[in-house]
Amino acid sequence: MKEYSFKKNDEIILTIDDISDDGSGIGRSDGFIFFVKNTLPGDHIKAKVMKVTKSYGFARCMEIIESSNGRCKARCSVFEKCGGCSLQNYKYEEQLKYKFNKVKNDLIRIGGVSAEEADEKLLPIVGMDDPYRYRNKAQYPVRMGKDGKPHAGFFAGHTHSVIETDDCLIEPEINSKLLDAVLNWMIKNHVKAYDEESGKGLVRHVLIRHGFTSKECQVNLVINGSKIPDEAGLIKLLIDVMPDNLKSVTVCPNTRRDNVILGDSYRTIYGEGYITDTLVGITFKISPLSFYQVNPDQTEKLYGLARDYAQLTGEEEVLDLYCGIGTISLMLSKKAGHVTGVEIIDRAIKDAKENAKVNAIVNAEFITGAAEEVIQTMLPGKGNRRTPDVVVVDPPRKGCARSCIDAILTLAPKRVVYVSCDPATLSRDIKIFREGGFELIKATPVDMFPHSSHVETVVCLGKNFSKPKDYIQIRIDAEDYYRIKESEKKSG
Ligand code: SAH
Fold it and tell me: Distance from the CA of 471 to the center of ligand 1, in angstroms?
């Protein structure tokens, strides 16, 4: 292996050609990888080495010698300091191009898909018409400022110092008014913000969640204690901001001295302990502790594709692995015979069951457990479950466990719909499915988080019936092919 002798403060020239998971630019000097914050693919820069490890280094951009064609001015005033939105200075169409190519390159490099097949089967990325104000949930840390007053904002990248901002452009505009109401109540009642070093102070975080369809709003105060003073005063100030739509105010005690935002329980001080919202045709009851998709517009598109790719007729047995609060299971239950959702977090399964009830869905059941373990009990001869016709997986970034994929291969469903938040592990898993007799039918990347480097992908995998060439050209999926073959047989 080549020996490199880079050291701190060395000056280097780099051309940035990629983006890391946290949104830093990636460039190579003599083949050695450097991560450089606030740089973009196409930038040619002078940088100073900050830190070097055995296989990569970090550098600071000193001068942009030639700027990327994709660069634009970030709209947000705290863009350079804030830890969110690392790509806001990259034109949105360039962000989409970059994300599409990331999925495509991973499919080719890791998934073993040929360039021609990737061109044919990877459909255009689904972006947003307006990539701002898309988040329905925000969690603002509250800290005391040097002026002796409480401030709310966001953490600066990789730190715990709060960047004050009166408006975050990916959150609803009204949030800044709700935050002001909380801060004014704190000032009036001499309530101190939490201090991480001393563990003193009361208010740690303010969580605000909006139902984009229902318009209902919930404000949740995470506190370092169990009670707050002047509850009525706080509620009045919040109602003044949202007289019609504020439906829930809660306090969530968290006296632990760690980085986890939420405590384990909450108390309702106004309205209900939850708000409701509708997504993919299902009504969800959302408590301060519930998981709920944060970009509802794109979730509709992402899960809508998953529903299309599942091609259900109303009869099928569907297995939804890594089901979370059951969004996909409940959506598919309307088009399937029966759905089983499996999820490792018990609280999410409780929410899924509750949401099934709220929607009067009786053909969906939910099991708490690790997907790779629960699926073993579904294998032939291991129980009396119906074999799934369609399996949906929506795993976390690390992808599916190998034993989970092997069990799916043994179950041999007609189709697998894979929803992924990491193109690299998706591609690794697609390779295994293909080796196991499945075929990549089609895939669509979806931009769930504009201005971040993340991209989701929905993939349809079907059984690999070796197809004659003319059928391949019209890109019908395996089942259509099967149906055509059947009718050909009948007509002799
Ligand atoms: N489709 C879901 C979201 C899936 S996110 C929804 O709409 O709610 C991935 C989920 O996988 C998370 O809920 C996570 O808790 C769960 N998970 C992680 N590891 C798991 C495992 N080994 N088995 C089952 N579920 C797992």
Answer: 36
Contacts of 303 (CB under 8 A, 6+ apart): 279, 280, 327, 328, 331, 419
Name the residue at shortest CA distance from atom 21 of ligand 1: 370
Ligand 1 centroid from CA 59, angstroms: 35
Catalytic residue flag (residue 421)? yes
Please check whether residue 208 is in contact with residue 137, taking contact to mean a CB–CB distance below 8 angstroms.
Answer: yes
Ligand 1 site residues, Cβ closer than 6 angstroms: 291, 293, 322-325, 327-328, 342-345, 348, 370-372, 394-396
Class assignment of domain 137-286?
Answer: mainly beta
How much is the pTM? 0.89
What is the homologous superfamily of the domain 11-66 according to CATH?
A: Nucleic acid-binding proteins (2.40.50.140)
CATH fold, domain 296-491, is Rossmann fold (3.40.50)
Query: Is there a contact between 217 and 275 (Cβ–Cβ < 8 Å)?
Result: yes
Query: In the chain, what are the domain boundaries?
Result: 11-66, 137-286, 296-491
Give residue-wise pLDDT tens across range 187-243: 999 999 999 999 999 999 999 999 999 999 999 999 999 999 999 999 999 999 999
**11-66 and 296-491, same CATH topology:** no
Q: How far is ligand 1, taken at its centre, from the CA of residue 370, in Å?
A: 9
For residue 352, give the ligand 1 atom closest to its CA. 8
